[in-house]
C-alpha cells in the first residue's frame, strides 16, 4: 500500500511539473517584442535567378523598382569573379552595386569562399588540386581584392565575411576553421572600418563563437526544414521569444557586439534535392505558400528584430512570371505601405 502511495505521489509531482513547464512554454508564445519598426531587406543571388531560368538583370531591377526594396544583401561569388586564377571579373557585381547606388539602396556585401545558395562553397575549379594552405591564401587574396575594389563605395554599409562559416551540417564545404576565419576578419578590418557581419544558424548553433568575431551577428530563421533522411521538420514548438532571449544573452556575453539581425528569414519552399523549377505547385506548397509568408512575417515581428533580410525573392519573382503573383504582391506591402 505504502509503495503504491509513493508511486502515485511521484506521478502527481511529475505531472504537476510537466504542466507548469507546458504552461510556461505556452506563455512564451504570448510574449511580443515587436514594439519597434522592422527594416526589411532581401538577399539577391544572380546565380539562383539564372537557375530559375530568369533573366537575372531583369529580376534584379524588378526587385529594386517594382518591389521597392531599400536594403539588399549581395554576393561576391568567388567562382564567378575569379574563374581563372589571378584574373578578376567583377562586372556582374559592379552592375548590381551601381543600380542599387542609383536608388539609394543600402547593401550588405557578402564575400568569401562560403556564400549564400547551394552548394554553399562556390569554389573556382582551379583550386581543386591545391593544398589547404594554398587554397586559404588564394581565398584571402580574393577577399582583399573584393574589399579593395568596393571600400570607396558608400552604398556598401557592411561586409559579411563568409556565410555561416562555423556551421558544418550543411553545404559542400571543408570543416569550419575558426582561426582562418579570424584571419579573414582581421584582413578586412585592416582595409576598412565598416561593420563586419558573421552569420550563424539560428536553430542549430549556439552563436557565441561567431558573435565573438563580429560587429554584428546575422542569423537564419527557419520555420520548417527538410532533409532526405527525416523529411520535413516543423519548428512549430519554438516561440519567437526563444530567438529574442538567445539574442539578448548573446549580446550580454559579447560586449563587442552591436546587434543581432536576421540575415536569412525563410521565404521560399524546400526543393527536396531538386531544382525549384522541377517541383510541382503542390510540392512547393508543402513547405511554403502565401499563408506561411504572412505567418513568418508576424513571427519575426514578434521576435523583436529590427533588421530582417528575406530569403527567396527570386522565387517570388519566378512564381509571378508563372502566373502566381500572390507572394510578390504581399511582399510589396512591406516596402510600399
* Counted beta strands: 10
- Order of strands in the sheet with most strands: 1-2-3-4-5-6-9-10
Rounded average pLDDT: 92
At the fold tier of CATH, the topology name of the largest domain is TIM Barrel
Question: How does CATH name the architecture of the largest domain?
Answer: Alpha-Beta Barrel
The largest pleated sheet is described as: 8 strands, parallel, barrel
The domain count comes to 2
Strand content: 15-25%
Task: Estimate percent helicity.
Answer: 40-55%
How many helical elements?
Answer: 13
In CATH, the homologous superfamily of the largest domain goes by the name Glycosidases
Walk me through this protein's architecture.
With 337 residues, this protein is α/β, with parallel strands linked by helices. It has two domains: 1-30; 36-336, Glycosidases (TIM Barrel, Alpha-Beta Barrel). Helix content is 46%, strand content 17%. Strand 3, helix 6 (132-150) and strand 4 (156-161) form a beta-alpha-beta unit. Mean pLDDT is 92; it is low at 12-23.
Amino acid at each position: 500500500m505504502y509503495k503504491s502511495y509513493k508511486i502515485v505521489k511521484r506521478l502527481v509531482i511529475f505531472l504537476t511539473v510537466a504542466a507548469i513547464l507546458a504552461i510556461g512554454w505556452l506563455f512564451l508564445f504570448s510574449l511580443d517584442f515587436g514594439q519597434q519598426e522592422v527594416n526589411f531587406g532581401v538577399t539577391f543571388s544572380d546565380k539562383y535567378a539564372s537557375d530559375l531560368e530568369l533573366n537575372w538583370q531583369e529580376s534584379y531591377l524588378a526587385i529594386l523598382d517594382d518591389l521597392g526594396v531599400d536594403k539588399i544583401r549581395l554576393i561576391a561569388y568567388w567562382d564567378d569573379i575569379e574563374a581563372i586564377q589571378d584574373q578578376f571579373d567583377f562586372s556582374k557585381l559592379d552592375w548590381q552595386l551601381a543600380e542599387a547606388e542609383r536608388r539609394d539602396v543600402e547593401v550588405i556585401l557578402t564575400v568569401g569562399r562560403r556564400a549564400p545558395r547551394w552548394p554553399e562553397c562556390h569554389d573556382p575549379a582551379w583550386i581543386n588540386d591545391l593544398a589547404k594552405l594554398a587554397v586559404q591564401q588564394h581565398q584571402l587574396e580574393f577577399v582583399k581584392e573584393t574589399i579593395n575594389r568596393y571600400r570607396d563605395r558608400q552604398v556598401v554599409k557592411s561586409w559579411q565575411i563568409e556565410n555561416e562559416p562555423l556551421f558544418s551540417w550543411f553545404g559542400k564545404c571543408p570543416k569550419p576553421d575558426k582561426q582562418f576565419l579570424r584571419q579573414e576578419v582581421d584582413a578586412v578590418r585592416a582595409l576598412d572600418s565598416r561593420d563586419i557581419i558573421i552569420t550563424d544558424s539560428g536553430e542549430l548553433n549556439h552563436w557565441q563563437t561567431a558573435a565573438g568575431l563580429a560587429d554584428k551577428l546575422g542569423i537564419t530563421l527557419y520555420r520548417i526544414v527538410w532533409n532526405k533522411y527525416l523529411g520535413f521538420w516543423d519548428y512549430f514548438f519554438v516561440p519567437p521569444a526563444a530567438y529574442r532571449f538567445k539574442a539578448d544573452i548573446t549580446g550580454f556575453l559579447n560586449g563587442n557586439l552591436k546587434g543581432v539581425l536576421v540575415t536569412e528569414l525563410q521565404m521560399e519552399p524546400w526543393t527536396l534535392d531538386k531544382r525549384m523549377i522541377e517541383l510541382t505547385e503542390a510540392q512547393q506548397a508543402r513547405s511554403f505558400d502565401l499563408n506561411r509568408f504572412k505567418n513568418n512575417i508576424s513571427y519575426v515581428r514578434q521576435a523583436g528584430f529590427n533588421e530582417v533580410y528575406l530569403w527567396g525573392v527570386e522565387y517570388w519573382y519566378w512564381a509571378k512570371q508563372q502566373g502566381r503573383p500572390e507572394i510578390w504582391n504581399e511582399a510589396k506591402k512591406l516596402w510600399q505601405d
